[in-house]
Amino acid sequence: MTLSLNQRAAELADRLAADAEALRVAVTTLPGGARLIDCGSAVPGGLEAGRRFAEICMGGLCTIGFAPLVLGGRWLPGLTVATDHPARACLGSQYAGWRIDRDGYFAMASGPGRALIRAEELYDDLDVDERASTAVLCLETRDEPPEGLTAYVAERAGVEPGALTLLYAPTASLAGGVQIAARIVETALHKLHELDFDVRRVVSGFGSAPLPPTARKDPDAIGRTNDAILYGGQVELTVDGPDDDFEGLVERLPASASRDYGEPFGTVLEDANWDFYAIDPMLFSPAEVRLVSTASGRSYHAGDVNPEVLERSFRG
Questions:
Q1: Of 100-104, 240-244, 300-304, minimum mean pLDDT range
Q2: Strands, DSSP E only, in the chain?
Q3: Which long-range contacts (CB under 8 A, 24 or more apart) does 74-80 make?
Q4: Domain boundaries, the chain
Q5: CA 276, CA 230: separation in Å to the nearest integer?
Q6: Residue-level pLDDT at 155
Q7: What is Dmax (Cα atoms) for the chain?
Q8: Could you tell me if 82 and 58 are in contact, meaning their C-beta atoms sit under 8 angstroms apart?
Q9: What is the CATH number of domain 5-315?
């Protein structure tokens, strides 16, 4: 597939930069030419900045909008995500799969630039042959990327530093909360991949998740943003294949299938001494999942939202 994720993302980033004042973001060009867009660290950012951040993160192969949600009788602000290119947009682009840890700078990188760098084995299972002269990456961090880091990323992506755009926002920010909630479909795709299902068979994805209240500190925000998906996220995936593939599979998809399910994520993380790798990887998925078969039209459902845990997490 020749559709360029980075080219689409770069065009969206251009529009975001052109509207920087209204969106309360800051655009900086480093001496080497790399463009930085701060969406919530030294600037307020906001909900719309976060929505656009998320669209860029998915290479523009999505529709993201805000919507009210009612979970367990309680009204919550939320968002919806729809894509007709689930594997490509969610795993090939949006998934935060590249861990940048260089010269004292750390960030989890997502976005279409990963498809140029291909630092992850994940790409062996995707039909992604990305070619572009520009690269766009989205970083979940409070720290502005330094010049040396941008030169390194540009080199890994095979582009000139002046053709690199890095967007960043901390977890504890309006934009950070939005862009993480917008990973609702991605978490379902990633769980499918972890279960050795061929995600290229997923034809379309639709999901919704509540927007977590913005926490004062990043560690608290990590808990709330994860809980929005684990206890409030709902996803429907339309999938090619015979019905026999879905009955056992769907029961393993929701977060409730994990041994670590049932407490706010902040509590789980504390109990694990802040070691993400000590947490059951099967926990990271939506609260509720429905698979729809293109072959028969039948749907298979598992999981449910958990407003009680969500309330405990969101009220702090």
A1: 240-244
A2: 26-29, 35-38, 63-71, 74-83, 98-102, 105-110, 135-140, 164-169, 202-210, 234-239, 288-293, 299-303
A3: 74/307, 74/311, 76/210, 76/211, 76/232, 77/210, 77/211, 78/181, 78/208, 78/209, 78/210, 78/211, 78/232, 79/51, 79/178, 79/181, 79/182, 79/208, 79/209, 79/211, 80/206, 80/207, 80/208
A4: 5-315
A5: 15
A6: 98
A7: 57
A8: no
A9: 3.30.1030.10
